[in-house]
Design a protein that fits this description.
alpha/beta, 35% helix
Length: 300
Amino acid sequence: MIEAVRLQKHYGKTKAVDDLSFTVRPGRVTGFLGPNGAGKSTTMRMILGLDTPTGGDVTIDGKHYAQLKQPLRKVGALLDAKWVHPNRSARAHLKWLAVSNKIPVSRVREVLEIVGLTEVAHKNAGGFSLGMSQRLGIAGALLGDPEVLLFDEPVNGLDPEGILWIRQFMHRLANEGRTVFVSSHLLSEMAQTAQDLIVIGKGQLIAQTSTEQFIADATQDTVRVRSPHAAKLREILAAHATVTDDSASGSLVVHGIAAQQIGELAAENQIVLHELSPQRGSLEEAFMQLTKESVEYHAH
């Protein structure tokens, strides 16, 4: 478990993290979201002891990272896939990490196989693509078979097969009871990966909840309806809900009434329906709605 209590990090007058409290539970994939400049990377660095908090505290199972005697056995992290020395092979890089944390060297072969880099294990990391570097970084995070894992933008550079693999792999890690904390700007991917969300803006907590609840709280479900008698149907539905026209598809978009009720009203009035499709709100819509006041960098 990761626990932050009133965490703060100031750079001069700039508050990168401002009185931030949250808990990352084991057995779940927790997504860490926020606009650019929200303080996500700074927070992850403080969890790993790379930055010292200005105030507050953050612990891993009740201990600071610096108190861990063999940290890779407790915490695995991928913050920067390109930090590896370019003239080291993938195998040599992982062997160095293993020896420094008293991890059996045999584990190197195991993690290379897990991430699919066995065939390039002897190649220098400097020649790796971004996707291959991501896989090497994930191998390093897994090396000590840790209980807690942190990933910052882990799917950058991965092809569709690689993205599916890391998504399924994170779920498997969480199902084993591990704590999985992942930051990403790819909201469509986070919607399929994260079970819980911690959302921050300008260094402050905006929401900590399940992904499903986050979407439900910030968006409104709609129903898309198509009928050869659209004008008559619109008139009937307008007495019960808000109805707008989607000129591109020729359908009606209905807010405030369930699909079942629409179908019943259409049947009562002998109106034929060609489509009756409930439309759930998306994580992207919810995120944009709840973080719009926290965006620091606007395009014009």
